[in-house]
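ok here's Chromosomal replication initiator protein DnaA, seq below lol
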Amino acid sequence: QWARVRARLQAEVGEVEYRTWLKQVSFAGLAGDEVVVMLPTRFLRDWVNKEYGELIASFWQQENQLVKRVEFRTGAPASRPAAPDLAEPVQAPSAGQPAMVAPRQENMAALDQRFTFETFVVGKPNEFAYACARRVAEAPATAGFNPLFLYGGVGLGKTHLMHAIAWELSTNARGGRPVSVAYMSAEKFMYRFINALRSQSTLEFKNELRSVDVLMIDDLQFLIGKDNTQEEFFHTFNALVDAGKQIVISADKSPSDLSGLEDRLRTRLGCGMVADLHATTFELRYSILEAKAQRAGVEVPPKVLEFLARKITSNNRELEGALNRLVAHANLFNRQVTIDTAHEVLHDVLKAHDRKISIQEIQKRVCEHYNIRIAEMSSARRARNIARPRQVAMYLAKQLTSKSLPDIGRHFGNRDHTTVMHAVSRVTELIAQDAAFAEDVELLKRLLEN
Ligand code: ADP
Ligand code: MG
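and the structure came out like this:
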């Protein structure tokens, strides 16, 4: 029965699609009205279930009327040898069939389904990198774009863009020939290289890598100090570029700043297109949050989005993590997302960010606001128009930094910690009594937090 179901699937979806997605489905058994099938990875399981689940179930039902449902599980069938690390390249589709790119399955499984061009939010800091990635996905190995070198700090979207290129190539191939894509982290590259050395299969490893159309290596900085692996990568790189294949690299720094890489490699890395992912701006963070909240189907008031976008400035990963926690919390307790819940749920994250505000910054802002000289923060003058702002600055230092009272005192002309304590309680009192003053302090606080 399974053989017949398979044959029908193959006929239905076409050879290439079948090989790409369905070949690895194995039949595990029939229990009551349920057929159990296995896939080697979770990603494949979910993907096949989503895309082909209904088709598979209906073919089964036509074979065997008892079957009501198909259960998808992960695991490899014991009887079959383990899948090779890199599946053999998929053959060209027969004429007339749509050209499906067939990235290698191992690599597809390593790709995050959420990292597509559609989910990538474009803004000033990343528009150039995005445009380059698009270009490479549309026309791999175009002169001037090879290699494509993407660099930027942690969590700014390098991996996302690389996966997006791979997905795009896998779904939107033009022309007749399928494109094979190999994506791996530099770490994985090294791991595989070392394994190949150990098992004396370096030649196979080399051939495998050199047979792809697009090679993507993520986080190249990992190869610094790994001389043998670097050497191997250099040769692979040259072989591929010489053969007109596309290379996409990401790293945390630009080629010229990647000290520790061999010069000749560094030079070649910089020969194509080098695109920088800049630190995010408030606008980009806001749009990312907006897009993700919408995708999650949760209503997050603009005020909360703004709050998060202002507070969590480090990188998009942290931003996303914060939003996810907020959304999970809202779902779990069936509560609306508000600034208060944000404070509550994200207490630790927000605190970590607050710590970055320095006392100097606070003093500067406060002085600007009250129009006094910065030296007055440390002076001994006790005139109210000076002393009050000084107290406000101390209060804000206590609120916005993790500095101790004595520490704070030292920044204010070596004042005693009791003076700081007094300032904090005085300002707290005034906030309670005087709405205008409270507003002033709140405004300062906001300005500093941004
Ligand atoms: P990097 O590889 O540069 O460290 P990632 O690509 O892993 O960063 O991005 C970290 C997280 O932030 C991912 O979940 C990614 O989807 C998200 N992200 C980064 N940039 C964007 C963007 N411009 N739009 C949407 N999501 C983004
Ligand atoms: Mg990354």
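fwiw Confidence is low (pLDDT under 50) at residues 78-106. kinda neat tbh
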